[in-house]
Amino acid sequence: MLEFLRRHQVLLSSGAFLMLSFVLLSANRGGTRRYDPLGAVFLEVMRPMQSVTVQTTGSVSSLWSRYLALVAVSAENDRLRLRLRAFEAERHRDVEIELENRRLSRLLGFRADVPSEGVTARVIGRDASGLFQTLAPNRGETDGIKPGMAVVCADGVVGRIAQASPHAARVLLISDHNSGVDALVQRTRARGIVEGIVDDGCGLKFVKRTEDVQVGDAVITSGLDGIFPKSLPVGHVVAVDKRGQGLFQYAEVAPRVDFSQLEEVLVTRGTVEPAEPGDAPNG
Prior knowledge:
With 283 residues, the protein is of the alpha+beta class.
């Protein structure tokens, strides 16, 4: 029996499937409801796969929507950053304009107190070599600038014009070792010469040893050198040296003006009255 089944298994299987087909056709021919057991099995098998497909499709759609939303938010953030930078740049410009207006207002107010004519100028350069203490204003001979004219600001004495060309000039600061300003100790009227020293400071020289000079004393211009108007602030005494047996004492002076922060200056003709013979420095 088993041998017969093995020999004719193909024929028997084909016959069984054929009979099953006839049975299904006969069962479904007469009624509206079809009998399809394979279809039911297929639905059961496909149901989990369809659920997974639907969930996956929903997740992908949600992720895509979130990605598009993030892209839109990122673009909006970029636009807001650009606007914020523009606002910050505008605010910085406004602050700079306000500070410049304050400096110019002080300079114009100071100009009203200077007894001679003056020309306002903007600082556009400084000595880069370190050998000289100089700066360059944006004015020249065409603006009335000439060598020897005094350069001041609202805080006090800056220096004098050392060179001039038609549209530029060079200012020798009072902190340069080649400078010299006839000055007074405001408290005692002791007279001397303010000269620059190597460490960007100043020294008050040729002051009689008998004169009273103390740390903290204000030093002002005497107006006797024919360059600087009288009573302009020069600086204050930070050290006094009376060592030695000479006729003079020496005082170290800190300039009133911070030259590294200087942006605008006033160039003035100074005084034109010659110094009287008795007004030479003490000594």
